[in-house]
Amino acid sequence: MAIWTLLNALSRLEPLVSNELHEDGRAQGRSLASSYPSPALVRYLNGETNYEECFQAVTEEERLVLRSPVKVAVVGCGRHSRSALQPNLARLPSFDLVGVCDTDQSVVSDCARRFGARAEYLDVGRMLDECRPEAVVVVGTPQMHYDIGLEVAASGANVFVEKPPAPDSVRAGQLAECALASGSAGMVGTMLRHTTAVRLVRDLIDGGDFGDCLFFSGRLSAPGPTSDDYYRLGSAPQAYLGAQAIHLLDCMRFLMGDTREISARLGVAEDAFSFAVNFDFLNGAVGTLSLATHTRALEMEVVVGGSGGQVAIATNANHLRVLGSPVFRNSLGGYVDVPSKGWDQGYTYAGTLRHGYLEELHSFAVSTRSMIPIGPTLSDGVVALQMCEAIWDSCNSRKPVYLASPQSLKVADETSLGREG
Fold first, then answer.
1. Do residues 122 and 105 lie in contact, with contact meaning Cβ atoms separated by under 8 Å?
2. Could you give the C-alpha distances from 56 to 38, 50, 52, 64, 380, in angstroms and in order?
3. pTM for the complete prediction?
4. Most buried residue, 60, 140, 159, 304, by CB count within 10 Å?
């Protein structure tokens, strides 16, 4: 009942900026596009330093969560939760896993044993009442993200929902507003912006020599989803957009800013399908996405070109090459040779499974403890779903779709975090 009371009150909600100070003395209302683990924390996770050395060397935000780990609970113990999220929650010293919940007792017990949860639950309401978590990670279907996300937000706990945050952008907006009304910060699990490779691209863009962004190109080949049985978003192609393409869409917006126009086409061959998407950005740049399913391997690539003559190419979140970077004294560039510099992830990686999962959960801990919204926020999730819907609408109409400007859904003191400027 409290959930619907909050939703009914949203129309009367006046924008406000809070000057309330949290325990670290900073004013609320500041926002971050992301929060990356410091080198000191990474070295600690890799076993190179002890806790005391780590604590003295980490950032102010990290020291907050190390001093007082966030009491977190998990709802949903499916494959993604067990392989990508709970292992990283257990690995991060910034969390205290106080409870785990699912409808399958055997899975709950297995996860509690493997990842160290203090208590096991089959009912979300009971878990919220007994554990009193500060933060809850919700992992399941889009409808589950929405329904349980509302329940968690109404309890006052900060909520992390996997992507997509709801079955559609309207309900995603309701979730974002409900979280705000109850004072709950929220995040969405579009993790690509948290990877080191994408962070380095963003740093390059912000560094000055890159110039203005001229173009974006993204490519994603994925085995699935090949049906809509699990996600229930309307069709298999729509499930692919909400489950897979949404990662690249959030990453693109993080690097390039908001979009003015989207034009898309759907290719179909038997049960397989693909998308070709063109974008016009508000900053004058253009972009493309090539998306495919039914592939036998997962691979993604992000390419950003700047007016300064450099092109950044990030592949699979663990390899980065920057073309046009003058790293050799006698390199001529142009048509003569290809001056470039590169970065590769080493053999030792602090997280579990793919890049970005540990980093996004680290950001969630920092956001919960500091009360600073960190992207991708629930509002960023709304915009990402709006873009998925625009792609699908353009495929069906075979016409461009023009997005409202500004797209950034600003709810009270939360700032939706695309690229600023």
1. yes
2. 12, 10, 6, 12, 33
3. 0.87
4. 159
3-state secondary structure 314-366: EECCCEEEEECCCCCCCCCCCCCCCCEEEEECCCCCCCCCCCCHHHHHHHHHH
- Dist CA 292 CA 272 (whole Å): 8
Q: Are 71 and 132 in contact (CB under 8 A)?
A: yes
CB of 370 within 8 A of CB of 21? no
- SS3 state at 137: strand
pLDDT, tens digit, 9 for 90 and up, residues 103-140: 999 999 999 999 999 999 999 999 999 999 999 999 99
Half-sphere exposure of 302 (CA within 13 A, CB side): 27
The DSSP bridge partners found for residue 27 are 21
Helices and strands, counts by H and E, the chain: 15, 15
pLDDT (mean) for 247-252: 96
Write down the pLDDT at residue 328.
75
Query: Rounded mean pLDDT of the chain?
Result: 87
Angle at 161 between CA 157 and CA 165, to 5 degrees: 125
The strands making up 95-101's β-sheet, listed across from edge to edge, are 120-121, 95-101, 70-75, 135-138, 158-161, 186-188
Question: Taking 70 as the threshold, does the pLDDT of residue 408 lie above it?
Answer: no
Looking at residue 25, its pLDDT comes to: 25
Report, as an integer, the average pLDDT of 224-231. Answer: 93
C-alpha distances in angstroms, 324 versus 114, 308, 328? 47, 9, 11
- Which contacts qualify for 16-23: CB closer than 8 Å, 24 or more apart? 16/412, 16/413, 17/412, 17/413, 18/413, 22/370, 22/371, 23/64
- With cut-offs at 50, 70 and 90, classify the pLDDT of residue 14: very low
Q: Cβ(131)–Cβ(73) under 8 Å?
A: yes
- Which residue from 161, 169, 168, 170 is spatially nearest to 188, judged by alpha carbons? 161
pLDDT at position 421 is: 36
Phi, psi of 35 (to 5 degrees): -135, 110
pLDDT above 90 coverage of the chain, percent: 74
- Per-residue confidence (pLDDT) for residue 405, from 0 to 100: 63
The pair of three-digit structure tokens given for residue 122, joined into one six-digit string: 């089959």
Catalogue the E-assigned strands of 67-124. Answer: 70-75, 95-101, 120-121
Give the Cα separation of 317 and 297 in Å (integer): 15
